[in-house]
Amino acid sequence: MSCIRFNTPAQRQAMRDHRPAMLTAEQAAALHPAPEVTESKIRRLRLLATDPNPKIREAVASSYNTPEDVIATLAKDPDEGVRGCVAKNEATPCDLLRELAEDRSETVRGWVAVNYFVPSDVMEKLASDRSRTVRSLVKWKASLAEEAV
Q: What value, to the nearest 5°, has the Cα angle with vertex 103 and ends 102 and 104?
């Protein structure tokens, strides 16, 4: 007995007729708005930033709503995963990205390299990074920019 299923032309047409509509990112965002940022949420982020579990701190470091002072503290976290989440967070201030570009972890520097908002002087510095992986990420990102032009 075969596990391959063959649909008839009528079945394939019925599936096409009943497929879900594809939404643009804007339409999907309009249907599912993000909840407003409240003082309570900020207090929770501050509390969770001190959690002993690095995965919890990573979640805080990834949030666009995390206050800058908390992001600055997490940028110095002993766990490279937490620092990496700070490095890839598009809300991370440029000065912190400059500091993280000198992080001892190749992974953290790599996340800095792919952050969309990293300053050009930092990208120039990372282009000559000691890590081949980081240099490759810088080249890859530059190639994406060239394709967009």
A: 115
Contact 88, 63 (CB under 8 A): no
Q: Return the number of other C-beta atoms located less than 10 Å from residue 54's C-beta.
A: 16
pLDDT at 69 over 90: yes
Comparing CA positions, the residue from 28, 11, 27, 7 lying closest to residue 19 is 11
* Residue positions counted in the chain: 149
pLDDT digits (tens, 9 = 90+) for 76-122: 999 999 999 999 999 999 999 999 999 999 999 999 999 999 999 99
C-alpha angle 5/8/4, rounded to 5°?
A: 10
